[in-house]
Amino acid sequence: MKIIITKDYEDMSRKAANIISAQVISKPNCVLGLATGSSPIGTYKQLIEWYNKGDLDFSEVTSVNLDEYVGLEVTNDQSYRYFMDNNLFNHINIDKNKTNVPNGLADDSEKECERYDNLIDSLGGIDLQLLGIGHNGHIGFNEPDSAFAVGTHTVELNQMTRDANARFFASIDEVPTHAITMGIKAIMQAKKVLLIASGDDKKEILKKAFFGPVTPEVPASILQLHPDFTLVTTCDLSK
Ligand code: GLP
Q: Does ligand 1 come within 6 angstroms of the Cβ of 35?
């Protein structure tokens, strides 16, 4: 595990964007695992800036996103498809047909989960997976549980997660109760994993996840076992 401590959110975003750029430059047809939330917005802005300067080319990149709410139309500004289009895809030359987000409107969610895992397998897995972390240690929407959920699955969001995400919705009642999330297997099989976290409110969970026991109660803790895992954070974890 490599830990990079950064000055502030901008510095974190630039350093994370550097790692993603290095991936795209060294393997133009790579598979990027992408994330939503407030943490990666600055990273995406930086990538867009470098793309606009002509330093990055996404034309051969394929992306697979971690998760999606169940029941939100893609036109809903809180859906993760909408987030990705608006915060990244619409501003770079990625082929939209090569961008993948779980379908939260699928009639048969079990089939959709199976389709998503097969898709990741057919792409040969993920080259670089970007992650944020929830205050309860969730990655994607892999919530604390008594066992690690292996494949893509539908999850009931716990109260802490719904409360944390309520800031983006008009009221807590509008926050979806379920989501589809990539499981731990696809994340752990990614060749590289990059987790970004900013703000002192993330410090406690980062310490638990990366200096505590590996346990499904803190899903991110499994990343301690990943052979190429980098944490880029504004939190000084030595204090
Ligand atoms: C959400 C997402 C996660 C994200 C996390 C933290 O629930 N499903 O992928 O990492 O919350 O979000 P933020 O970066 O806004 O703190």
A: yes
Give the residue, by CA position, lying nearest to ligand 1 atom 9.
Answer: 140
Residue 110 lies in a domain: yes
As a whole number of angstroms, the distance between CA 103 and CA 115 comes to 10
Ligand 1 mean position to 35 CA, how many Å? Answer: 8
What total of structural domains would you count in the chain?
A: 1
Say if residue 199's pLDDT is above 90.
Answer: yes
CB atoms within 10 A of CB 114: 13
Phi-psi label, residue 143: left if phi above 0, alpha if psi -120 to 50, beta otherwise: beta
pLDDT for residue 37 is more than 90: yes
Q: Is 36 in the pocket of ligand 1 (CB under 6 A)?
A: yes
What CATH number is attached to the domain comprising 159? 3.40.50.1360
Catalytic residue numbers read: 67, 136, 138, 143
On whether the CB atoms of residues 82 and 76 are closer than 8 A, the answer is yes
Q: Considering the chain, what percentage of its residues have pLDDT values greater than 70?
A: 100
Predicted pLDDT at 238 = 86
Does the beta carbon of 187 sit less than 6 angstroms from any atom of ligand 1? no
Which residue range is the domain that position 165 belongs to? 2-206
